Write a sequence for this structure.
């Protein structure tokens, strides 16, 4: 066995030295190479991931805002339309009311005017009747003073009164 | 032309033999440590040059290890071993191919005893190195297994009295652990050593041009062997940390 080891060049000191070498290299590289680089890569990955997440979040917020904005706009438009419609409706109602009012008022005025007119007419007519009667009688009296007999005078007066009455009735 | 299976002792330090393979191991370690420390001395958010290259390599390797191991937590524990195996073996293999390594040295001894003594030799062409790596690989595999699934459960893989089949499977598993050490060490040693011998033989037969394709081949073999060693370790660790069903 020892001869085999001798031929293969195996020496326990060298074996131990190489084990030792490996562990020196292992610990040094672990401390100065793997750990710093892996930590660094992890940090960088995290930073990138965080950045991506943030941008995604911002995008989402933006989209949300846009949605809210659109929703608000639609709502506002609807409200505005409602207001306009309401105003229109109200205006129509008011218009109708005003028209009806005006109509009744005009009717009242018209009726009153008619009444006034007829009243005035009647009054004037009565006055005129009275005046005409008086004038006719005066004129007749004047005429009759010379030519017409008393007999005739009486019948003429009756005729005149009848005539005036007929005229009055006709009007 | 003499080919020595064992590495050549250059000197000794208080009785401790210092061989050409050990010397090149130190050179490789020094270069790797310097490279590692320099690259992470100042890390930039936007990587450039060396940092960029190492970041890419480490990120890819981490992803590879994670794809086998599964969880981030276990990967972080296993990853340093796998990468250290990979880079140490890879750089050792490639350093053995640099012209001058294995060819620059001194003659010593007298007459028939005269021997050529190269100053540097690929660490992985020395069985001590590969055996050391194999021991570490198998031992950490078992440690990971015990730490992850518990001692009794892990030991149950090797010693089981549940059924005769389980008992014999346990014996086979135990033998397999020893076999793993041998296969790990001799595979790596054999490939690298054979490559060196091949280059020496070709170079002595037809110098200058003929060894170049073989040199390219050895670069490839060096990479493959580093990958095989680290990937096998990775897979064995994965098997060990996965509870038997």
């Amino acid at each position: 066995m020892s001869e085999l080891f001798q031929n293969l060049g195996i020496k326990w000191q060298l074996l131990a030295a190489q084990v030792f070498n490996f562990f020196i290299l292992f610990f040094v590289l672990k401390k100065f190479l793997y750990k710093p680089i892996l930590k660094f890569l992890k940090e960088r990955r995290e930073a990138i991931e965080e950045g991506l997440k943030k941008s995604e979040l911002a995008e989402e917020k933006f989209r949300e805002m846009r949605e809210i904005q659109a929703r608000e706009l639609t709502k506002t438009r609807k409200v505005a339309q409602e207001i306009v419609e309401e105003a229109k409706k109200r205006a129509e109602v008011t218009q109708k009311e005003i028209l009806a009012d005006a109509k009744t008022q005009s009717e009242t005025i018209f009726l009153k005017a008619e009444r006034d007119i007829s009243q005035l007419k009647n009054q004037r007519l009565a006055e005129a009747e009275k005046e005409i009667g008086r004038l006719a009688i005066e004129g007749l009296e004047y005429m009759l003073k010379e030519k017409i007999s008393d007999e005739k005078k009486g019948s003429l007066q009756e005729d005149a009164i009848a005539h005036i009455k007929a005229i009055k009735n006709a009007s | 032309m003499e080919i020595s299976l064992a590495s050549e002792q250059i000197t000794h330090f208080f009785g401790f033999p210092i061989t050409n393979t050990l010397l090149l191991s130190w050179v490789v370690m020094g270069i790797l440590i310097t490279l590692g420390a320099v690259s992470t001395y100042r890390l930039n958010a936007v990587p450039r040059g060396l940092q960029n290259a190492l970041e890419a390599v480490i990120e890819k390797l981490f992803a590879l290890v994670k794809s086998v191991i599964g969880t981030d937590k276990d990967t972080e524990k296993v990853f340093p071993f796998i990468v250290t195996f990979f880079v140490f073996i890879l750089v050792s293999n490639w350093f053995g191919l640099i012209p001058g390594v294995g060819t620059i040295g001194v003659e010593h001894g007298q007459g028939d005893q005269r021997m050529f003594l190269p100053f540097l030799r690929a660490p992985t062409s020395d069985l001590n190195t590969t055996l050391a790596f194999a021991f570490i690989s198998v031992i950490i595999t078992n440690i990971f297994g015990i730490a992850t699934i518990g001692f009794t459960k892990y030991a149950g893989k090797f010693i089981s009295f549940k059924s005769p089949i389980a008992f014999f499977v346990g014996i086979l598993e135990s033998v397999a652990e020893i076999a793993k050490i041998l296969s790990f060490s001799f595979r790596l040693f054999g490939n690298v050593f054979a490559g060196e011998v091949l280059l020496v033989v070709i170079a002595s037969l037809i110098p200058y041009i003929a060894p170049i394709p073989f040199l390219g081949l050895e670069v490839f073999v060096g990479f493959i062997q580093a990958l095989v060693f680290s990937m096998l370790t990775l897979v064995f660790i994965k098997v060990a940390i996965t509870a038997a069903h």
Observations:
- The first helix of chain B runs from residue 20 to 39.
- Residues 9-241 of chain B form one domain.
